[in-house]
Amino acid sequence: MDIDKLKKLQEEVNAGRGITCVKYIINCLENNEIEQAQKVYQWDGDKIRAYPFVQQWFNENMGCRTHLKMNCQDALCITLNKYNEQRINNSRP
Ligand SMILES: [Zn+2]
Fold first, then answer.
1. Which of 20, 65, 76 is nearest to 38 (CA)?
2. What is the pTM of this model?
3. What's the pLDDT tens digit per position in 19-74?
């Protein structure tokens, strides 16, 4: 799990202020409190969705928000992942 990459990604959003719940999750991960990090991701994850590159990191490292599964095949999770990929593709020049 590349925590430094997550740090960099979240520092780039919100006019450099980052995302409060992601900062907390980073703190948990650095202290090896994986379960707490997962809980915050599930409770406060709606705030992450606005930032597609940060959301992508979560998809790849912690899985979907609802089930915490990588490559989750749940219909809603597939839809959310596709939507996130679209937003990433659209943001590329
Ligand atoms: Zn899922």
1. 65
2. 0.93
3. 999 999 999 999 999 999 999 999 999 999 999 999 999 999 999 999 999 999 99
How much distance in Å is there from the Cα of 64 to the middle of ligand 1? 5
- 14 vs 24: CA distance, rounded Å: 16
Domain ranges of the chain: 3-91
Tell me the CA–centroid distance for residue 15 and ligand 1, in Å. 30
Determine contact, residues 62/37, Cβ cutoff 8 Å.
Answer: yes
In the reported structure, the alpha carbon of residue 43 is separated from the centroid of ligand 1 by a whole-number distance in angstroms of 15
The region that residue 45 occupies, defined by phi over 0 for left and psi between -120 and 50 for alpha, beta otherwise, is alpha
Identify residues whose C-beta is under 5 A from ligand 1, the ion: 64, 66-67, 69, 72, 74, 77
Ligand 1 centroid to residue 65 C-alpha, Å: 7
pLDDT grade, residue 92 (50/70/90)? confident
